[in-house]
From TrEMBL:
Species classification: Eukaryota, Fungi, Dikarya, Basidiomycota, Ustilaginomycotina
Region (Disordered): 19-39, 388-432
Location of the protein in the cell: Membrane
Pfam families on file: MIP
Record's keyword terms, sorted: Membrane, Repeat, Transmembrane, Transmembrane helix, Transport
Main subcellular localisation: membrane
Protein name in UniProt: Aquaporin
Entry GO CC: plasma membrane
UniProt biased composition (Polar residues): 409-425
Amino acid sequence: MAQPNMTMVDANAVPVSSTAAGVPATGGRISTDTARHSRRRRLSMSMPFHGRKHHDVFGQDTNPHRRKHFGKPSFSGFQPHFMAGLGEFIGTTMFLFLAEGGAKTAQLSVSAAQTDTATPLSNETIMFIALSFGMSLLVSAWMFYRITGGLFNPAITIALWLVGVLTTRRAVVLFFSQILGGIAAAGLVLGLTPTNSVSSVTTTLQPGINITQGFLIEMLLTSILVFSVLMLAVEKHRATYLAPVGIGLTLMAAHLFGAVWTGCGMNPARSFGPAVVARQFNSDHWIYWIAPICGGILSVVYFSFLKLLKYNSVVLDQDSDTEVTGLKPIHTRVWNLVRHGENPSALNPESSTHYDSKARAEFDQEQREVFEEREQIRAGMMDKPVFDGHANTAAEGRMAQSVPGHGSPVSTGSTLAHTTSNNTGKGPILPK
């Protein structure tokens, strides 16, 4: 009959299960945290239908590993939207304050301290206004580019919402932030300049420009501006970090044309802000809302059409590290036509974007054959150079191996040849 195992048990010993579970040793008693947790569990079991789903009666999440925002992006909280809205408000205020202040300064014949008389727009004035808006957008967008994207324009916000860059909530927050920023910028220009008016920076159609002409000018100029944003900032490439430069120069070029005819609004926040501060809404003010939005939609349609047609298959590898041409040189094409009957307009299959499937398959097959031939030649070579992995062996003089049945050594590298012929008795020559 087997004898039972008898072991001595210490009365003060702590149970292993409680220590392994991370519960403090309390002489066999349940800790306060464990008792509270058990009570919560009993209450949850007794009251299965409580107020919030996935939470107990104390408001604690019963599953800490549960996904908090199922199916929603991580930026759907209040803090990211607030930060984006605040950034757009400050950025739009900064941009339009510099731009409208420069435009107002440009229309004064002499310094504001001497007289407040404004002059008609001359070539110098137009250049001054264009530089004010272009450079203001450039520096402001570059500063806020990594914070909010540096939009500062409700028309651009709507365009990015249409292409899927912005969510609906984010687009609404940015839209109203930009409108408020335009009002704040006009108020700063009014309060910090000697003249008690901002009528010189309001946008209105000039004499000789009818409603249709003004609408088309504003729509097309805004379309060009939004398209520059889509191609330089939305489409990622190696020069994306320079997008504010190209967008600012686009706004400057647009003002060189449109400033003298429509005031070159191109931005509902830019036109609405001075109108609110000046308390002056012209009969054509609706143009500066509808035309920029239509221009943004037009650029989105064109941009989407280019994406559908895969526009990047037309140009020659713009983001390539090496120069790759789609067509072969003219003398090569003429020779291939005479010798092989090849189409002289055939594209170079070495290009990463300018070949069809058949040309690519032929090119890959040629490269594979060349590689296999090179490997066969390399395997058949008897005199191989010494690599770094053989340096220690060469230093010890054991690069020669005897063939079974023969007493003469067989060379396995150039080091042995130099050692036995030209450096007898002086040890092996190590590779440089």
